[in-house]
Structure formats: structure tokens, C-alpha cells
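Form 7-S
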Amino acid sequence: MRLLKVATCNLNQWAIDFDCNLKNIKESIAKVKQAGAVIRIGPELEITGYGCEDHFLELDTVTHAWECLKDILLGDWTDGILCSFGMPVIRGSERYNCQVLCMNRKIIMIRPKMWLANDGNYRELRWFTTWKQKDQLVEFLLPVEISEAISQTSVPFGYGYIQFLDTAIACEVCEELFTPIPPHTELALNGVEVFLNASGSHHQLRKLDLRLQAFIGATHTRGGVYMYSNHQGCDGGRLYYDGCSCIVVNGELVAQGSQFSLKDVEVVIAQVDLDAVASLRGSISSFQEQASCKTRVPSVAAPYILCQPFNLQMSLSSPVKINYHSPQEEIAFGPSCWLWDYLRRSGASGFLLPLSGGADSSSVAAIVGCMCQLVVKEIANGDEQVQADAIRIGRYTDGQFPVDSKEFAKRIFYTVYMGTENSSDATRKRAKLLAEEIGSWHLDVSIDGVISALLSLFQTLTGKQPRYKVDGGSNIENLGLQNIQARIRMVLAFMLASLLPWVHNKPGFYLVLGSSNVDEGLRGYLTKYDCSSADINPIGSISKQDLRAFLCWAATHLGYPSLAVVEAAPPTAELEPIRSNYSQLDEVDMGMTYEELSVYGRLRKIFRCGPVSMFKNLCYRWGSILTPSEVAEKVKHFFKYYSINRHKMTVLTPSYHAESYSPEDNRFDLRQFLYNARWPYQFRKIDGLVQELDGDKIAFKELSEIEKLGACPNGPGMGVVAAGSGDPKAGL
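Output:
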């Protein structure tokens, strides 16, 4: 047996904060060495932080990364252990995203990334170039200050692996695993047994399984030990990196880290037998045949032994069941951890939320409540960093610290119900009850006086007095009166966030939380510069349907039973007067349901459909319940309002990224914001298709009538009807 103890880790790094990052790296190495592991891998670009973005273009960023690496190599951190560190490296005039593999205070090799992530939220080609010389390792001259410090002039640079005396080890960096021909394929044929994958993978609802199945598939038929390391936390932007560092052996998971956590450092250890890898490979005939005619990959010799022989002092890690969170748990824990990182790193003293008693703002309130519960739980588990941050933010003195989530929420969380004459008693009561369950400092404010003052000013300036539509006003008047209420709430929220800490003799400021969801952003069903405009928004990339499921879950699992009542209430903005024969409802206002919006969003973004393609797809999907004309009207209605309101995405509050069809304009969904909202060419194409389909339907109906009379020349029952359906529309 060749027994090997290996370690990977989740690190909560912060872009450009080199002190924080270096501290976490050293702490992880210390824990790994204490556990007796001889291989340690950290996340991609762990020294700088993954989210540096255009800071990667600054020479300072690269220089500081080398300075941090020198600090590590001058100490005993790498003594007796192979460590892989992620950092940017400049060779000649090109900048590369690299893994620097070090041991015994020397750099063994530098492995540049060959395939860069460049879609969705990723823009690596903006900052780095790909390494293209796969057939050789080249000499890289180390920076002078590094060379002098570690007494090493150069190091092999490029694609290859390290050949130790008893095993072979190689890197496969993040995106490379997901390419059509991943490097581990030929590396395995070259005898590499341990794969190190440093990643910067962000959370997205229902995404984790795809990632884990990739690790499992990489070693299921090829054999090997696959070590995956990821960031965990908010490193300064919209993304939450969701950890879940793990170790897979021959297609079986043997160790898995947490997906959501407040810890800055989490180490995942496994003890494996490399002879099991050799045995599996030797039993697969096709592997043997392909290995005998493989393309040779260059290697670097390292004169060290990493494995131990058979001994009962070292037990082997057994396969474990994969731990998945439900989507409701993901909504609870992901944004909660993101909010905690943002709060503790921003210098703010807490959060302020305009709480309307509706589903969206109640979801945000529940997420903050969940955050407070996680903080108290982590302190009880002995996390000194979380305790120190909580004491500082909550202004605890005399050795006190949070032991109750409601008491902690009272110190850091303000909720404000901003009612008008259009608000109902039901939403006011729901907001008050939820605030009591969470423990927030709750205010109930009427803003009618401010609205009246503005309308009086408008009447003085223009001589006109606008009316609501239910009172005989026009659409323009109706919309203007709703916008006044919404925008006053935003102004009041920011005023309270800046002054309430002063009122209560607290330093600093409060962060205003937004509460618009991804579907409202897609449709533009929000007022520009209303309460959707905030400092940050934890639900801006989550669908209404997922939020309603979350509310049901949170009512029980977070201990906030009033959320069940919130979920059962029909969504309404409460910006128009309530009458005996009229009550404003979101889906009526929008002219579409939230369920339909999710369908439109996925077709538009994930399946890259324009109006015509969306129409064709929906004719198949909805053909059994809608005519082509009805489908066409729905598609046109969506694209009309999507394009009219797209400009609102340019000022969308920075939101936690959670959904694959997010319309967020900053980096994920890059499109124009000035459209011809009539879509003349595309809508004409749809109209033409509708005419063709209607003509086919008429002909089909006539054929069916003939069949019923038994006069069909091909005999009865030979008409073209969708299988299993008596409805002619089902086949459209």
C-alpha cells in the first residue's frame, strides 16, 4: 500500500487585502500540517483574491503576490509538504493565472492556466492569457528579490506534472475540468495519480451537483485522487463563493467541506491508498491500451517520498454520502453568509430594511434573521473571528458577546414600515409581527404628509392635480402618483440609515437593503430609484417562485411562523387606493404571472432566445392550452415591457448572484438598454408564423371533420394528431 494524507481547504479571501489572504493561507497550512497531510491545495488566485478584476492589470497586484509568496517561503510553512498557491504571474509581456507549486522552501514548478473562464460572471480573458505550449516546459526566471531570498534562479514553467519518487501529481485549474478535452484525461494516461484543482466557483441555485459530478466523472473510469479547493464567502462583489472543497478517489467522494459557512478557514482532510488507483487502472483494458500510445506530457522530477507504507496508525477515508442543500436552504444560508461578510468588511453598524409585509421584503428580513442565528451558532462553536466581529459591530462591552439571535438582531437590524393611505392593516400587522419574531428594531411610519407636501408643490407649479385611475385619472397620472410614494420611501430609508445610529448613540451608518426579485427586474416591474434602490440586495437574483417556497420553509425551520401568512397573501404593491371593487395586484399590473416570467427569463438568457425563437419554443410548451395567436401576444407583451424597462437594470442595486437568468446589467447579462420596443422586424416574423399556423389549423380541422364522416381517402384515424392527445393544439 502507498498511503497518502492530503488536504484541501475553503478560504474566505478578500480581493486585494493581502494581509487577510496571507493570514488565512498560513492558518490553513498550519492546520494541514497539524493533521499530518503532505499535500495542501488552496483556491484559485488565493493570494490576491479571485475577484480583483481590473486590479489584475496593475503591476502592484502581481508584485504584492510575489511578496506574499516570499513571506511564505522564508518561513517553515512548506517544510515537508507540497503546497499549491494561486497567483498571477507575468512572463515576458504576458500575464498568466497560475498555480505555484512549492515544497521545502523552493518553487518546484509554475503551472499557468490553459483554458480560461470567460462566460457568465467570468471575464478571465480580460486580464490573463492562455498558456498554449503544451509540448514543453520552459525556463522562468524568478524576480530578483525572490531569487535572492530563496536562493533559486529559475523554475520550470508550463503544462506538465511533478514526478515524485513514489507518485505523480498535476494541476487542473477550475475551468479546465469543464472543457471538452480536460487535461486530466491525458495526465492520467501519463501516470498522474493525484489531481489538484484550484477553483473560484460561485454559488448558483441548484448548481452544486454539476460540479461534484464532474469530479466524480473525472476519476470514475480513469482512476485517481481528485482534490478540489474553492473560495468561500464574499470577496468584494456580487458573488458568493460557496466552498464545498472535497476529495474524490476513483469516482467516490471521501471528504466534503461545507458549502455555506462563516468560517474564514476550513480544512478538509483525507487519507487515501494510491495502490487503489493503480489497481483500478490496471483492471481497465481500454485504459491500458490508450496509455500505451499516449501523447507524452512533460514532467519535473522531485526527489521526495510522499507516501507511507502500510501501517495501522493511518486509517483510510471511506466513501461518504454527498451533502446537498435544498434550494430553500441555499436561499437561507448563501445570502446570509454574503451579508455577514459585507457587513463586517464594510465598516457599517448594521442593516436597515423597508419592510412592507410582502413576500420580497419579508424574505430579506428572514435572511437577515438567519444571518443572526448563524452568527450566534458559530460563536457558540468557538469561532473567535466571528465573535470578535460580532462584538465590534454590535457594540458589546465588558466581555459580553451575542448569545441570542433576537437580541443581536435588535442591535444591528432596523426595519421600517412606511405606510400610506393606500396601505392595508394586513400588511402593517404582518410587518410588525415578523419584526418581533426576528428581533429587529421596528418603526411604523406614515409618509402621507410628505406625499401631500409634494403634490401641493406640484399643484402650485402647474395648476394641475393628478388623480388615481380608480378616481378617473389617466395612466400617466396613476403611474406618477405611485412613483411619488415609492421614491419617497427610498429617500426616507437612506435618511434613517444614516441618522438612526446617531439617534441611538452608535457610530457609523446602516446599510440599506433592497428587496426586488429577479422576475421584477426582468419585467421592469419596479420604480427607478424606489426601495429597489439600496446599498445591496440579497434576493435580486432569486425568482418569486423560489422566494415563496423559501418563505414556507423559513416559517418552520427559522422559527418565523408569520412568514406562512405572508406567503399565502397575493402579491401587491399597495400604491393605488383600495376600493370595494378594486385591489391592486402585481400579476394583474404586469399582465403576466410570475411563473410565466420565470419561463421567459430562462428562454431569453439560458436558451438565448430572441422574440421569434421564444415564440416557437412556447408554441410547443403551451400549445395544448393556448393558440398561436395567444402565445404571440404573450411573447410580444413580454418583450415590449422588457425593452421599455431595460434601462432600469443600469442602476440596479448590487445583488447577490443566485439565478442563471439574472438580467443584471453590470457583468452577467450584457445587452443594450435603449431598444426599439416595437421590435418591428421580429414581431412581423411572429405574425407571419401565426398566420401559417392558423392556416394549418383550419386545414387540420377540415380534415378531422372528413375523418369523422368516414370520408378520408386514407381511412379513418389517419389524420395528424399529437400522440396521446385528442387536442389538435397539443402538437403545435
